[in-house]
Amino acid sequence: MAAMMQPQIILLKEGTDTSQGKAQLVSNINACTAVADVVRSTLGPRGMDKLIHDDKGTVTISNDGATIMKLLDIVHPAAKILVDIAKSQDSEVGDGTTTVVLLAAEFLREAKPFIEDGVHPQNLIRSFRNASYKAIQKVKELAKSIEGQSLEEKKRLLSKCAATTLSSKLIGGEKEFFASMVVDAVGAIGDGDRLNMIGIKKVPGGTMRDSFLVNGVAFKKTFSYAGFEQQPKKFLNPKILLLNIELELKSEKENAEIRLSDPSQYQSIVDAEWNIIYDKLDKCVQSGAKVVLSRLAIGDLATQYFADRDIFCAGRVAEEDLLRVAAATGGTVQTSVNNVVDEVLGTCEHFEERQVGNERFNIFSGCPSGRTATIVLRGGADQFIEEAERSLHDAIMIVRRATKNSTVVAGGGAIDVRFYHI
Ligand SMILES: Nc1ncnc2c1ncn2[C@@H]1O[C@H](COP(=O)(O)OP(=O)(O)OP(=O)(O)O)[C@@H](O)[C@H]1O
Ligand SMILES: [Mg+2]
């Protein structure tokens, strides 16, 4: 009982800002409005892009609200929440990240005079809740279902959704071209929730229209050793072996310390090492694979060995690419070359190494599981392609969502205007 009677004591660190009440609320609103003013000019098809550079000299040109908000170094605790709003919109929906920040800031600005007049924040919150409830009802009334439409019609609608998303971006001029590419890419990955199955590869140079979609996997040629050029670069229906081991002579001696009493034994140790690597290579060849990929290095000895046997190999393949090849071709990544049975080998209709701009690409197309797609983006400078990738990401997310939710409303500001008249 005595404890309950004691007044509560809260200890705060020295220098803590304890300001509260009306003045603090207004100051929070002002901070949010200031941040929203930064992204305001990027909204819509006539919106402009922002050029942001940081201390390290990295330059980003973007129209994407979430990207701009993330790059702004905001210190005000209330305004930081706007960054989180943009981030969550980006991960949940993909598009509309500028809109959510602006809407939040506008709501706050509308609320400011009421706060100044002494209206309790709880009352304001209740009104906003009511308004959002009504708005959601109205959206549902206006929404149009794409369920039950023919495949062609569905594709047309989805590609319209993608085009609306792209219209406010740098690549807006080519929105139809990219919209149909995005719809095909999303269609290729099927129902799974694995957006990482759509790879986007950037190759500077060329024009935007040189971009293309691969129904399968494509990745930049990895570092290769002597002998690589003698390997064949094109196969029809090859078996594909995926590895997570190093095929290099040096790999055997890394953790070994051997003490020799007789120098003549030295040769036998060297021979043993060669035998081990040859044994590994033999097993790869015997598996019947025509394409060998490894996440780790494939050295010069192995490269030459495979070249002599008309096998293509690539080492140091990025993990995400290797996993996508595995998913697309139906293969499994092996950590040993012992017992490589047919089931763990992948396959595809067509494999080739092709020149794209100044880069060479390994392209696997016509994959049996068909659950992957790769967009190879071309055009202009690095920053341009980076922004194009972000824009495509928005469009991919939107098409994905539209295929799942299957109801759409008119975009391009139409729905906003409709709400204005409620
Ligand atoms: N043709 C148009 N006429 C009028 N308004 C349009 C038109 N096309 C798009 N809009 C409006 O532009 C806004 C979209 O702009 P923008 O794509 O720059 O921002 P966002 O989608 O909110 O964010 P981000 O794309 O950066 O994630 C939407 O409010 C949309 O209604
Ligand atoms: Mg947008």
TrEMBL record:
Concerning SUPFAM superfamilies, the annotation shows:
GroEL apical domain-like, GroEL equatorial domain-like, GroEL-intermediate domain like
- Which cellular component terms (GO) are annotated to the entry? cytoplasm
Q: Which domain of life is it from?
A: Eukaryota
Molecular function GO terms recorded? ATP binding; ATP hydrolysis activity; ATP-dependent protein folding chaperone; unfolded protein binding
For this protein, the record's InterPro entries field holds: Chap_CCT_eta, Chaperone_TCP-1, Chaperonin_TCP-1_CS, Cpn60/GroEL/TCP-1, GroEL-like_apical_dom_sf, GROEL-like_equatorial_sf, TCP-1-like_intermed_sf
Keyword annotations: ATP-binding, Chaperone, Cytoplasm, Nucleotide-binding
Give the subcellular location. Cytoplasm
Tell me one Pfam family matched here.
Answer: Cpn60_TCP1
NCBIfam families xrefs = chap_CCT_eta (TIGR02345)
Record-stated family: Belongs to the TCP-1 chaperonin family.
**What protein name does the entry list?**
CCT-eta
Q: What species does this protein belong to?
A: Citrus sinensis
